[in-house]
Design a protein that fits this description.
24% strand, globular, 6-stranded antiparallel beta sheet, 33% helix, 32 strands, 8-stranded parallel barrel, 19 helices
């Protein structure tokens, strides 16, 4: 008997581990009796022909009605009709998406009499309070109904949160009663909110524990009422008060032996901004940096309201590949229109791209891509060198902390969110600063580390910026964001100079340094530009560095700092470039045209002479790419780039 018990436990763990295999490409689909034949055919086609290896049937069990309607029973009836028809034709995994438990708000029809969550301002939101035992009993019953269907997994959506504008907690009578038990005194909602805003440490700690315990009770209830071996997944949101518990909550929902699965936040809702992928890449890099290791992290690849008019298929595919290269292992994908009706034509382009590029998407999510390039510290909501310049100019970058021999690039906005001790550590290595960073560092006690007492510009207009040889880097005009690099420390080396031209044809008059290289007492080498990087896209008078000459100069400055770029995009145009190593494919570089132009023959610069270059096809097969060497020493590839369709190449260096 003991042998069989041990065997059951082992098989249970092995089953959960098998379900944990990555990547998870999970498509959200409606569980409706209407158009059943069309839904089944679509699910089968997704599972058999595209990257999709799991579907999540939408089951919204947010309580509504008086008495409360048994929604799970209605979904179960439809599931029993549709699921077997899918399993007969496809091995795609079928799971249950608890698309709303507490609730997203919404329009319930007739409202339940149960306790709703209460905002800091006293207004109720149609989201159930997890402290109401009637709600937990209802959730337990609904989950038991789903468990009887034997789904392959379940996923809990991100409505399980009680945080409002970063003020945590539900301020309903049940939560205030819990606070009274914990502190031995009564509280009004207004008193609690005032203490939170005042950052009362003792109150915040107690209040956070109450919030955590009430949500944990919900997750434990869900987990306890599914079969133990059924894998569970968790969807989080980016708000700090919710995200910091994401791994813990995911672990509560996981089956024995299953690595916790967290779907992050960052959907491209109604987003067709050309440069949104740059920001989205940084957003997910920050989330990955914040969550502890030991988590399978998925993207939020939602295209709400699930039509091509809200987010193009190319834009969604592009973001999914780029995030996979950052270390995200799949996505919860919502590309099927489910509101009111299912419109078939609006979903075909997504499926075509996922079918034609399944090899690329799975390679990106499965490879051990070790990215290199200029390093940018990830920070929430901050656009730094990566988004403002490097990504637009085809210079490789990665998010994180610099390894030996790497260069960290900083703008003022990065510095404003970094701890001073981290800034000091960064300044002990190789660092590139723009003018806004120089002004901030000088004003905050780091002038001796950068070798100059930088301050906002108050001099004459600058029309000329010249390098050490006197060659023109680019014309410009300046404003208060420009940095006046004055009062040089001993040993500071001027690498470029700024000139005023009093009148047309007049001799240029030297005004101030344009860039300075300095070795500081921490052992660091700091290269400071007077030029500011102020926006994702440069405006008319901020375009100096956004030119062929400016790009060549920046690359040379990076080399002066010891930055080794195995490859970079040497052509003109907005093409993102990523480089790195994999254990199987060696040196890899990724090119992504982020404007609307096709790039017929991308031009690359390599640190080593290439012996061969191959491109990964959508079918997962590497194919040779022909290339020619230019007089300038760059290489032109006969492999066109289409806008917003990332191209992955591998590179072999010549041994001659």
């Amino acid at each position: 008997m003991r042998y069989w018990l041990r065997l059951i436990v082992v098989l249970t763990v092995l089953h959960a581990v098998a379900e944990d295999a990555c990547p998870h490409w999970i498509s959200v689909v409606p569980l409706k009796a209407e158009d059943a034949e069309g839904i089944v055919d679509d699910v089968v086609a997704q599972g058999n022909e595209t990257i999709i290896n799991g579907i999540a049937w939408i089951c919204t069990i947010h309580p509504s009605g008086n008495p409360v309607v048994d929604k799970a029973a209605q979904y179960a009836e439809t599931y029993r009709k549709l699921s077997p028809r899918v399993r007969a034709k496809s091995a795609v995994k079928q799971g249950i998406l608890l698309q709303a438990t507490m609730g997203h708000g919404g329009f319930p029809g007739e409202a339940t009499p149960w306790q709703l969550t209460v905002r800091p301002d006293g207004k109720s939101v149609y989201r159930m309070c997890p402290l109401d035992p009637r709600f937990l009993d209802y959730i337990a019953k609904e989950c038991r109904t789903f468990a009887a269907l034997k789904p392959d997994f379940f996923m809990v959506d991100d409505d399980t949160r009680i945080v409002w504008d970063n003020i945590p907690g539900c301020f309903c009578p049940l939560h205030l009663k819990e606070l009274e038990k914990a502190t031995g005194r009564t509280w009004t909602r207004e008193e609690v909110v005032a203490r939170i805003k005042a950052k009362d440490a003792a109150l915040l700690e107690t209040w956070e524990k109450i919030k955590f315990d009430s949500l944990a009770a919900l997750f434990r209830t869900i987990r306890a009422n599914f079969d133990p071996e059924t894998p569970g997944m968790f969807c989080t949101v980016s708000t700090a008060a919710h995200f910091k518990h994401a791994k813990t909550f995911a672990a509560m929902l996981a089956a024995p032996g299953q690595t916790p699965v967290v779907r992050g936040s960052g959907a491209n809702y109604c987003g067709n901004d050309l440069f949104h992928p740059l920001q989205r890449r940084g957003q997910f890099a920050y989330q990955l940096a914040q969550i502890d290791p030991g988590v399978v992290y998925l993207q939020e690849a939602d295209t709400c309201p699930q039509t091509l008019w809200s987010c193009s298929a190319a834009r969604e595919y592009e973001a999914m590949v780029l995030q996979a290269l950052e270390g995200v292992k799949g996505a919860k994908i919502w590309i099927t229109r489910t509101v009111m009706t299912r419109e078939r034509r609006s979903q075909t382009a997504y499926r075509r791209l996922f079918r034609e590029n399944r090899g690329v998407m799975n390679w990106a999510a499965q490879t051990d891509f070790r990215m290199d390039g200029v390093v940018v510290p990830p920070a929430a909501g901050v656009d730094g060198f990566a988004e403002r310049y490097l990504g637009l100019m085809g210079i490789p970058y990665r998010y994180g902390t610099a390894r030996p021999g790497e260069v960290t690039a900083l703008c003022r906005d990065n510095l404003k969110v970094l701890p001073r001790e981290e800034i000091a550590k960064i300044l002990s290595g190789a660092v590139l600063l723009d003018g806004t960073a120089a002004n901030w560092l000088a004003a905050n006690g780091f002038a001796k580390d950068i070798g100059v007492a930088a301050k906002p510009w108050a001099r004459k207009t600058i029309q000329s910026h010249r390098d050490e040889t006197g060659a023109e880097i680019g014309g410009m005009r300046v404003d208060a964001e420009f940095s006046d690099l004055t009062a040089l420390e001993p040993g500071a080396q001027i690498l470029s100079r700024l000139y005023n031209i009093p009148a047309m044809g007049a001799t240029p008059v030297y005004e101030a340094p344009g860039s300075i290289l300095f070795s500081n007492a921490r052992g660091g080498r700091v290269l400071t530009f007077s030029l500011p990087l102020r926006s994702n896209r440069p405006t008319y008078y901020q375009s100096t560095m956004f030119s062929e000459g400016g790009k060549a100069w920046v690359v040379q400055m990076l080399k002066r700092l010891g930055c080794r770029l195995p490859a970079f995009f040497a052509g003109a145009g907005d093409v993102m470039c990523e480089t790195g190593m994999t254990s199987k494919d060696g040196t890899v570089f990724v090119l992504n045209a982020i404007d609307i132009d096709t790039v017929p023959e991308p031009e690359m610069s390599f640190a080593q002479v290439p012996a061969s270059i191959e491109r990964l096809g959508g079918d997962g097969i590497w194919r040779p790419v022909s290339f020619t060497r230019t007089a300038a020493g760059t290489y032109v590839l006969s492999s066109p780039l289409q806008p917003h369709l990332p191209a992955i190449f591998r590179f072999r260096a010549s041994t001659l």
